């Protein structure tokens, strides 16, 4: 009887260990989990990502989640402090919306899973080693935009000889996009005129510095600049310059001629889906960078009222490509 007991006790122990190991990566929907979300600054696009994440996880049935929502207000030191807070609180998953906050989380958190969202180039930012392979405890969604196509689209509306671009020299994504914009301009036969800033309070002066030397402004998904888009709009109006923006979310309430980019709320939903996969047991190292590739993910906004004020006529062929058009003060969805 003793041998029988020892034998089956051993079998029971082995089976128990196997079951625990098999389920160790999966979170029960009744387990209380804190998800920390850190965004570099508050503006419509990043706010949309934040809301999309929460809405998606709620829709997927996760009622056991608590969200710790943090805003770095454009400060790298604050982003680092938020990362340390999440580390002290031992959050299970930490989400960095935009490159600087994602980098801060990646540097500080070794035991938590870090999810990046709205990051242009996660490899260049040092978040992952490859876009096509996963990374231990790190996964995310990229918002790489078609820079050359955006500039070429603007050129079809106005014959641009010199294009002005303002960007934050301390944001890795902004620097990457500036290089892409310069290359695109070189290929399109446009002179690239740049002006850099280190914080949002410098944006207006940077715009004023180059306004007299350019035919239009191109704004990328640069969080520092987009958070101060009203300043660029003010300068553009006074100098009768059109603006092409890569952020339709922030362009809705401002006089931007054209805005072509992602629907950032949908990007938040995609990020939420990624988080759900991990909560359901999938390992981050098995998940390559997620890209927004569906036509419905992209938004093209054209403001015909702005075009009229600038004396520009947008070809009907281009208008037909827009998903939203502003005309006579009203937004029309197609």
Model description:
There is one protein chain. This protein is an alpha/beta fold. It has two domains: 33-143 and 264-295, Response regulator (Rossmann fold), CATH 3.40.50; 147-261 and 298-333, Response regulator (Rossmann fold), CATH 3.40.50.2300. It is built from 13 helices and 14 strands. The strands form two sheets. An eight-stranded mixed beta sheet has the order 7-6-8-9-10-12-13-14, sandwiched between helices. A six-stranded parallel beta sheet has the order 2-1-3-4-5-11, with helices on both faces. Strand 9 (243-245), helix 10 (248-251) and strand 10 form a beta-alpha-beta unit. Helix 3 (76-89) crosses helix 4, helix 5 (147-157) crosses helix 6 (172-188) and helix 7 (203-211) runs parallel beside helix 9. The longest helix has 22 residues, at 2-23. The chain starts with a helix and ends with a strand.
The gist of it:
This protein is α/β, with parallel strands linked by helices. It has helices at 2-23, 44-59, 76-89, 99-108, 147-157, 172-188, 203-211, 223-226, 229-238, 248-251, 264-279, 304-310, 316-319; strands spanning 33-39, 65-71, 93-97, 113-119, 138-142, 162-168, 191-197, 216-219, 243-245, 258-262, 290-291, 298-303, 324-327, 330-333. Helix 10 links the parallel strand 9 and strand 10 (258-262).
């Amino acid at each position: 009887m003793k041998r029988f007991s020892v034998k089956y006790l051993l079998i029971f122990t082995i089976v128990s260990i196997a079951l625990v190991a098999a389920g160790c990566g999966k979170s029960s929907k009744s387990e209380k989990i804190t998800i920390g979300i850190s965004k570099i600054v508050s503006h419509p696009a990043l706010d949309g990502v934040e809301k999309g994440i929460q809405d998606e996880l709620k829709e997927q049935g996760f009622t056991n989640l608590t969200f710790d929502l943090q805003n770095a207000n454009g400060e790298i030191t604050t982003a680092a402090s938020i990362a340390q807070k999440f580390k002290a609180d031992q959050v299970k998953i930490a989400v960095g919306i935009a490159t600087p906050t994602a980098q801060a989380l990646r540097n500080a958190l070794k035991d938590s899973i870090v999810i990046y969202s709205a990051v242009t180039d996660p490899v260049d930012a040092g978040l992952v080693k490859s876009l096509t392979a996963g990374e231990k405890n790190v996964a995310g969604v990229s918002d790489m935009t078609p820079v050359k196509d955006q500039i070429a689209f603007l050129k079809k509306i106005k014959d641009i000889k010199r294009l002005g671009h303002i960007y934050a020299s301390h944001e890795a994504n902004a620097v990457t996009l500036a290089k892409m914009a310069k290359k695109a301009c070189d290929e399109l036969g446009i002179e690239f005129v740049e002006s850099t800033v280190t914080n949002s309070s410098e944006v207006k002066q940077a715009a004023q510095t180059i306004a007299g030397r350019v035919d239009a402004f191109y704004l990328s998904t640069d969080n520092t600049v987009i958070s101060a888009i009203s300043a660029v709009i003010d300068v553009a109006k006074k100098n009768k310059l059109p603006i092409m923006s890569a952020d339709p979310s922030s362009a809705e309430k401002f006089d931007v001629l054209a805005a072509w980019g992602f629907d950032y709320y949908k990007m938040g939903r995609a990020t939420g889906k990624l988080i759900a996969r991990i909560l359901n047991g999938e390992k981050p190292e098995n998940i390559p960078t997620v890209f927004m590739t569906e036509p419905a993910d992209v938004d093209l906004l054209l403001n015909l009222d702005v075009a009229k004020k600038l004396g520009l006529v947008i070809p009907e062929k281009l208008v037909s490509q827009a998903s939203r058009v502003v005309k006579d003060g009203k937004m029309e969805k197609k």
